[in-house]
Design brief:
The chain is α+β, with helices and mostly antiparallel strands. Helices cover 32% and strands 27% of the residues. The chain has 7 helices and 14 strands. The strands form 3 sheets. The protein has a 7-stranded antiparallel sheet with strand order 8-9-11-10-12-13-14, sandwiched between helices. Strands 4, 5, 6 and 7 form a 4-stranded antiparallel sheet that branches. The chain has a 3-stranded antiparallel sheet with strand order 1-2-3. β10 and β11 form a beta hairpin. The longest helix has 18 residues. 27% of the residues are buried.
Length: 268
Amino acid sequence: MRMTSLKMKKILDERLAHEDFHTAYNRDQDTYRIEWKDSHKGMSIKLPTVIAKYNERGEVALEELVEHVSEALKIMNVHHTLDGMEKYIYPVIRSTSFPTETKEGTKLVTKEHTAETTIFYALDLGKSYRLIDEVMLEDADWSVKHLEEVATFNLRSLDIPYKVDTVRDNDFYFIAKQDGYDASRILNESFLEKMYAQMKGEMAVAVPHQDVLIIADIVNKSGYDILAQMAMKFFAEGRIPITSLALIYEDKHLEPVFIMAKNKPTKE
């Protein structure tokens, strides 16, 4: 039976039923809104996107969405502090188009990374995390430099397990531990240098969404095409997409590139 927005709305109504929640369906925008009754803080979901993922992955996609929404709403209704939380702070990678302010207008703490990516900072809360804003920083009397140092130190402590696939003589390394910081591992400079040292060809990196980091050892033209296809596929499937573009790594520098079919990449 074909899934429609109204059917999906009814499913979400049942799954997200809570006496403190208020839900609403906007037919014109085809969105589903869920928020706290008292504070009106909440989030809106694009139903066509949910339906597409449901058609592809079934019940698993719904379970992941419900868990994500439930955790996000809990975070919105709790005051968080950085005091005594140093070991739970990590950098996270987002697209440059990702909002740099909360809906209340508070600026999030960010740092430039590449033309396609921006660094944000997160307070890990177990099943989810809260992006750190300037008010949280001021309340804790922290400098941005201190925040960066704490986050970088914690990132380096994360292990980096990977799987390797070889396609047409090109090696592709996949980091996908699903801990929320897979893409963040692109900020571990010592790891990138270690990988760079063992490359037979050119080193390309991709962070299509939050939960995967791809490192490619490109030894022939086919490697660029394969990486481009992988990045696009992961980008379309990711819950928090970042960029479908690959990044060339050279001289400790990451440069976004467009990869044209059957051609070497051209710099953006």
